[in-house]
């Protein structure tokens, strides 16, 4: 597998990201009536989920509990605590996950005119587009296949398009010889920004339909937030993260508070996306060479994703998430916010709300998967951006693309 040329990867990559939030840990509380339930590790339906639960917490400052009791096989057991009519799930249920096979889902920027065409030969994949048309109120497949490019690239359309096409790719794989066995063997999943929603749908945290409704609203809310402020994103190539931070610090000394910049996407070594006010981004671009950056590439996005500029989108997303049924995923889903898997449904909701304004920790996520012994991974959906990133981080990594 050959990674995409760096400039092509950057040109195609658009991120949907949020201000970094400190996530504190607290010890797990001992509660009565502990129930351990076994979950089949070979679910026949990729959208099957384990159980539902509830949990209370605050939006800013999510508290993640450490789990210190006897270690269990996290991929096969779910621990819940009955509290009258409520059921609380230990959020650290998947903390000791040991990945062997992963599904990785792309984010905004992977879209390309013509995607979705292969999936029309698979009834289950084609049906996802029909369901999407009913939810979105327009012919999504027509935009995916015929464009125009400018329309498909818009935030409000590209996010639903990538979500549906990525899950259609799962059905394309399922229809192949041995495809169901591969799906059954997946024991961890994650996605780049928008792709986190796709990963959660695959893992059964919410239905395809509910996930699409969330993605639709997310794209609309992010576009509106971007329209309300003059902001931008730029990729800095050839520097490590510490030097990119120093570059941001230098730029921030010359602009006011409204134009400050920050690292918004920790993509992979030598490739980090910076978001902020337009003036701050321009100052950063002017200073990049003096910091020995190889180049900067302005990203064709609506605004400063994954920063405080997206704060207006958070309340709308929180309201939609509060009204959505979210279940404990059947396998670990790695969060973009802290590069950790979460089991508690309410924590997952809070993480998704924070994600839109927090830096994406993709580099840490991939490093964790590889260091924990990941043997095989699949990129499902349009493009090959994720495969390029993984191969850049580990040339010997075994990753395969499944398109639709």
TrEMBL record:
<protein>
    <recommendedName>
        <fullName>Malonyl-CoA:ACP transacylase (MAT) domain-containing protein</fullName>
    </recommendedName>
</protein>
<dbReference type="InterPro" id="IPR004410">
    <property type="entry name" value="Malonyl_CoA-ACP_transAc_FabD"/>
</dbReference>
<dbReference type="InterPro" id="IPR016036">
    <property type="entry name" value="Malonyl_transacylase_ACP-bd"/>
</dbReference>
<dbReference type="InterPro" id="IPR001227">
    <property type="entry name" value="Ac_transferase_dom_sf"/>
</dbReference>
<feature type="domain" description="Malonyl-CoA:ACP transacylase (MAT)">
    <location>
        <begin position="104"/>
        <end position="403"/>
    </location>
</feature>
<dbReference type="Pfam" id="PF00698">
    <property type="entry name" value="Acyl_transf_1"/>
</dbReference>
<dbReference type="InterPro" id="IPR052760">
    <property type="entry name" value="Mitochondrial_malonyltrans"/>
</dbReference>
<dbReference type="InterPro" id="IPR016035">
    <property type="entry name" value="Acyl_Trfase/lysoPLipase"/>
</dbReference>
<dbReference type="InterPro" id="IPR014043">
    <property type="entry name" value="Acyl_transferase_dom"/>
</dbReference>
<dbReference type="GO" id="GO:0004314">
    <property type="term" value="F:[acyl-carrier-protein] S-malonyltransferase activity"/>
</dbReference>
């Amino acid at each position: 597998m050959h990674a995409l040329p760096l400039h092509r990867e950057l040109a195609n990559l658009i991120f949907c990201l949020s201000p970094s939030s400190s996530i504190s840990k607290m010890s797990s509380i001992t509660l009565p009536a502990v129930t351990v339930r076994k979950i089949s590790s070979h679910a026949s339906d990729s959208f099957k989920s384990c159980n539902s639960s509830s949990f209370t917490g605050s939006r800013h400052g999510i508290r993640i509990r450490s789990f210190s009791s006897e270690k269990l096989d996290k991929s096969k057991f779910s621990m819940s605590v009955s509290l009258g009519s409520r059921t609380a799930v230990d959020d650290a249920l998947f903390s000791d996950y040991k990945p062997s096979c992963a599904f990785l889902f792309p984010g905004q920027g992977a879209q390309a005119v013509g995607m979705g065409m292969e999936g029309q030969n698979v009834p289950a994949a084609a049906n996802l587009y029909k369901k999407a048309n009913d939810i979105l109120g327009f012919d999504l497949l027509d935009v995916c296949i015929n464009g125009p490019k400018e329309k498909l690239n818009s935030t409000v359309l590209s996010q639903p398009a990538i979500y549906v096409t990525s899950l259609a790719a799962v059905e394309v794989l399922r229809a192949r010889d041995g495809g169901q066995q591969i799906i059954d063997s997946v024991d961890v999943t994650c996605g780049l920004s928008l792709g986190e929603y796709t990963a959660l749908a695959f893992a059964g945290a919410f239905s395809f339909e509910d996930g699409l409704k969330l993605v639709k609203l997310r794209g609309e809310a992010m576009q509106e937030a971007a329209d309300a402020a003059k902001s931008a994103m730029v990729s800095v190539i050839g520097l490590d993260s510490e030097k990119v931070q120093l570059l941001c610090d230098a730029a921030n000394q010359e602009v006011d508070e409204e134009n400050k910049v920050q690292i918004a996407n920790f993509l992979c070594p030598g490739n980090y996306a910076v978001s902020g006010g337009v003036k701050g981004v321009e100052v950063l671009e002017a200073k990049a060479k003096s910091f020995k950056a190889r180049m900067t590439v302005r990203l064709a996005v609506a605004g400063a994703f994954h920063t405080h500029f997206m704060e207006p989108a958070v309340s709308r997303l929180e309201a939609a998430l509060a009204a959505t049924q979210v279940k404990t995923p059947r396998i670990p889903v790695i969060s973009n916010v802290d590069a950790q898997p979460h089991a508690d449904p309410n924590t997952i909701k809070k993480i998704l709300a924070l994600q839109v304004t927090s830096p994406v920790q993709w580099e840490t996520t991939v490093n964790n998967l590889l260091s924990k012994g990941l043997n095989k991974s699949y990129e499902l959906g349009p493009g090959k951006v994720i495969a390029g990133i993984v191969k850049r981080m580990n040339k010997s990594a075994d990753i395969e693309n499944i398109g639709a």
